[in-house]
Write a structure and sequence with these properties.
Elements lengths: L1 E2 L1 H15 L3 H16 L10 H9 L10 E6 L2 E5 L5 H19 L1 E9 L6 H9 L3 E6 L20 E6 L5 E6 L6 H9 L9 E2 L14 E2 L5 H14 L24 E8 L7 H17 L14 H13 L1 E2 L2 H8 L17
Parallel strand pairs: 3-4
Antiparallel strand pairs: 1-11, 2-3, 4-10, 5-6, 5-10, 6-7, 8-9
Helix pairs in contact: 1-2, 1-3, 4-5
Length: about 350
């Protein structure tokens, strides 16, 4: 099923407004979700709407949050999201961080007490579009076995980075600290597709290709990914006085409870370190030089980080965004939620 960007945004916003969000916040969430879908990150796009709608309807997201932004130092601040939708809180916190970095050269803004905020690339690209370097990390459900362990402790704990080029291309990295994000498991389940055996393990700790048998994910590069997810947990959890490690709340366990998640934005203004025009020129040069590297056998071209998503976006802008038929049918239906997420995995058989 192909839909236009504007149609998908409107369908998502209407459904979330029906669930109980204000129109302003529903529009804000839709903007982040459509960003994910149009860049091919379907695991963080429209497929999440029914889950959000059910959590909103059950009281697990504060629909009338009182956001509080507190400047704590020359380059530091804390944004309290009052357990509202994470997408809107994280976006507003990044806007504040950008303004602070314009004045002080750097901004470190912690985002406390929020719900799930979607694809981190959205927020770091905010900074890059403003001529800044953006870095963002956030907590997620404990569903990853630490290196050498057999029980989940950390979440997929993603890291995102973006920087502007001279010609308005954005160098963008958005990665989970696991071999693959949990949303990719859900996406495979929604399409009834198998997964590589390097992504996850079953209840016995054995690698599995069946997304329905996944019990825990694996960190990237063994101890290196394990160390990165620990770093993310410290920055977005312990540093902000929030639950951490295996005490981070589950996305699906109890949809009536607030999640109290954390996120951490770091924004760097290149003008405080070098000539900003030269900086952007060198980012463009980096991109071009990467593209010109002789590809390895089996590859057509070396792509810079985020370029594949750029290509997907160009195709989707021309021909419509591809989404699963079942998701489209839900979005155009009168149904808000079907009580399918509480206390269980949303795609479990």
């Amino acid at each position: 099923m192909r839909v236009s960007q504007s149609e998908l945004s409107q369908l998502i916003a209407v459904k979330l407004h029906q669930a109980g969000l204000s129109k302003e916040h529903a529009d804000g969430v839709a903007d982040v979700l459509v960003h994910a879908d149009i860049r091919g990150i379907h695991s963080h796009g429209a497929m999440r709407v029914e889950y959000y709608a059910e959590r909103i309807a059950k009281g697990g997201i504060n629909t009338t949050p009182h956001f509080k932004y507190e400047v704590t130092g020359p380059s530091t601040a804390v944004f309290d999201g009052d357990n509202g939708v994470g997408h809107v809180a994280a976006k507003q916190a990044m806007d504040e961080a950008i303004q602070m970095a314009k004045a002080s050269g750097i901004a470190a803004v912690g985002v406390r007490r929020i719900g799930h905020s979607g694809a981190l690339s959205y927020f770091v690209r905010q900074a890059a579009k403003a001529g800044m370097i953006g870095i963002s990390v956030c907590q997620s459900d404990p569903m990853v076995v630490p290196f050498g362990g057999s029980e989940p402790y950390y979440g997929t704990n993603p890291i995102a980075f973006a920087a502007p080029s001279h010609d308005d291309r954005l160098l963008t990295l958005d990665m989970a600290t696991t071999v693959q994000a949990w949303g990719k498991i859900l996406h495979a389940r929604s399409r009834n597709e198998s997964i590589p055996d390097s992504w996850a393990v079953d209840k016995e700790g054995h690698p599995t290709t069946d997304p329905f048998k996944v019990n825990a994910l694996l960190p990237i590069a063994g101890p290196k990914g394990y160390g990165l997810m620990m770093m993310v947990d410290v920055l977005s959890g312990i540093l902000l006085g929030l639950p951490f490690g295996n005490k981070v709340s589950s996305m699906y366990h109890d949809l009536t409870e607030y999640r109290n998640l954390g996120q951490f934005h770091l924004v760097i203004n290149p003008a405080f370190f070098t000539d900003p025009v030269v900086f952007r020129q060198h980012i463009s040069q980096t991109m071009d030089e990467l593209n010109r590297i002789k590809p390895a056998p089996g590859f057509g071209q070396v792509l810079f980080p985020g370029q594949n998503n750029d290509l997907i976006q160009e195709e989707y802008e021309q021909n419509g965004i591809e989404i699963v038929d079942e998701i489209y049918e839900y979005l155009v239906s009168d149904t808000v939620h079907r009580n399918q997420y509480d206390h269980k995995d949303p795609f479990a058989k």
